[in-house]
Prior knowledge:
The structure holds 2 protein chains of 2 kinds. Helix content of chain A is 18%, strand content 21%. Chain A is α+β, with helices and mostly antiparallel strands. Chain A is flat. The N and C termini of chain A lie far apart (56 Å). Chain B is an all-alpha fold. Chain B has one domain (2-244): Ferritin, core subunit, four-helix bundle (Ferritin). Helices cover 68% and strands 0% of the residues of chain B. Chain B has helices at 3-24, 33-61, 67-72, 92-113, 119-147, 151-164, 168-172, 176-183, 190-207, 229-244. Chain A binds chain B through residues 5, 26-30, 32-33, 36-37, 39-41, 44, and chain B through 32-35, 37-38, 41, 134, 137-138, 141, 145.
Amino acid sequence: MSKDWPLWEVFIRSKNGLEHRHVGSLHASDATMALQNARDVYTRRSEGVSIWVVESKHITASNPEQAGEMFEPARDKAYRHPTFYNLPDELKHM
Amino acid sequence: MNDSLYNYLLMIGDNAMILGHRLSELCGHGPNLETDIALTNISLDLFGQTRYYFQYAAELAGDGASEDSVAFLRYPHQYKNVLLVEQPNTDFAFTIVRQFFFDAFHKPFLEQLSDSADKHLAAIAAKSLKEVQYHLSFSSEWVRRLGGGTEESHRRTQRAVEELYPYTGELLRPVPLETEMQQLGIGPDLEQVAGAFEETVTGLMSETALQTEGLSRHQSGGKAGIHSEYLGFILADLQYMQRTYPGMEW
Lengths: 94, 250
C-alpha cells in the first residue's frame, strides 16, 4: 500500500457558471474524502455550488509531443468556422 | 440585565471558543495540507459562532462591554465550557474523536435552539446549524475511516474514545441554569438532545467496532466553572496580549 494518498482533480461549478471548471488538484484516500477536501480547500470563499472530483489516474491526456499532428492540421481550415455566411440584416446578435 | 440569559450565552459561546482555539492550535500542523485547512475552517466557523453569542452577551451586559471583553477578560472559573472541549489535541485520533463527540451533541442542540423563544438566539442557532452539519459529516467520516482502518488506526482511535467518552456525560446532563432556560422555552430539552446524541454515537461506534461499553461518563464541572488543568494554559495563551497591554487594538 502506498504511503501517499492518490491525487484527485477538482472541478467546480460557480454560482453563475453553466459548466464545471477544473480548479486544481488535491490528495485524498477515497472519493468521499476528496469531495470534503475539495469543499474545504477550493470553496471556502464561496466559489462554487457543485463539485466533481475524479482520481487523476482516470484522466487520459493528450501527449504534448504529439501536439503537432493533433492540433496543427486544423489551423489552416478556416472554412470549418461558420464565418462565410451572409446574414440577413434582420438577424441581430450573431 | 438578564443574568441567566447572559450566563447561558457564555455557556454556549465558551464551548465554541475553546474548541475553536484547540483546533486553531493545529493551524500549520495538520497531518497534510487538506486536513490542515479543513480543521482550520472548522475552527473559524466556531469563532464566528462565538462572536455572535458574545456580541449578544455584551449587548445584554451594557456598560461598555464588547465581544472582546467577554472573550478575553474573564478568569478561569468564569468560563463555562464543558471539559470535553478543553482536552488537548494529543494526536489526530483525539482531535477527531473529540470533534465527533462534540458535533454529535452540537447538531441536535442547535436544531432545538433554532426554535428558541429568544429570537436572537434562534437566529444564531439557525445560521450555525449549517456549519455544524458539515462538521459532523467531516468528523463522522474520519471516525469511520480511522476506526475501520488499519489495526493501528483502530487501536489509537479506541484509545481516544476511552479517554474522551467519560467527558460526554457533561454535555447531556443539565445544570440548574439549563433547566431554567428550558422552562422559559429559551434553551433546548437536553433529554431530547441526548437521544439524538446516543443514536449518532452508538451507530458509528458499532459500525467501526469501537467500544464504549463499561466506560463511565462521570466527568463534569466545566459548566460550573470548575475546569481541568488545561483551561488555565489555554487562557494564558488567549489573554496574554490583553492582560499585558490592556485595551490594545490593532
